[in-house]
Amino acid sequence: MKKIGLLVVLIALLFSCSAETIEVKKEEKNTVPNVVTKDTVGLKIAYYQLDSLRSQFKFYKEQDEIVSQRQLAFQKEIDRRTAAYESYLIQKDGEAKKGLLSENDMVSIQQKAQKMQEDIMKYQQSEGAKIQEEMAKKLEVIDKRIEVMGKQYSEKHKIDLLIAHSKGGQFTFINPSMDVTREFLNFLNENQKSKNK
Fold first, then answer.
1. How far is CA 150 from CA 80, 160, 165, in A?
2. Which of 3, 55, 68, 117 is the most exposed, having the fewest neighbouring CB atoms within 10 Å of its CB?
3. Whole-structure pTM value
4. Separation CA 158–CA 176 (nearest Å)
5. pLDDT class for 9, splitting at 50, 70, 90?
6. How far apart are CA 61 and CA 69, in angstroms?
7. What single-letter DSSP state applies at residue 32?
8. CA 122-135-169 angle, 5° bins
């Protein structure tokens, strides 16, 4: 009797598993998107060299220079603090070798040196994070400006697709006749002047 009951449970379990498998297979069939094919005759595609934008788009260079100056000042401050820390250690080591320091002085010096080192590390972390955040925000502003001006440029010249191309990018080859880097850079720089006024 127990065997029959167990057999009935196993058969019911098998049927429920196969029913779930059939439902999953039905769902998989319906996952293909319905994409409308459009006529590409007359489609106008152009590209610009992203590396050239980084080196020749004046707004990009200005923003990069601001961040570079902050990074330079940051590094100078780290160097200054590190030099003060090392100088303090050398001075106190010399005093210790001459026997000018008591045991209490040594403990106090060790605590001060440890505090100086911790302060340097805290400064590196907090200011470094601020600079990275500032850089990310500036890149976001630059990207948004390129996007907006890229749309204006494309609308002005009736370009359907404007692609940013860089070495090691997704495209192995793009016909050089589609390269609008110089013209797009001129457009960006000219329109940048009017935005700055």
1. 44, 11, 13
2. 3
3. 0.65
4. 19
5. very low
6. 12
7. S
8. 125
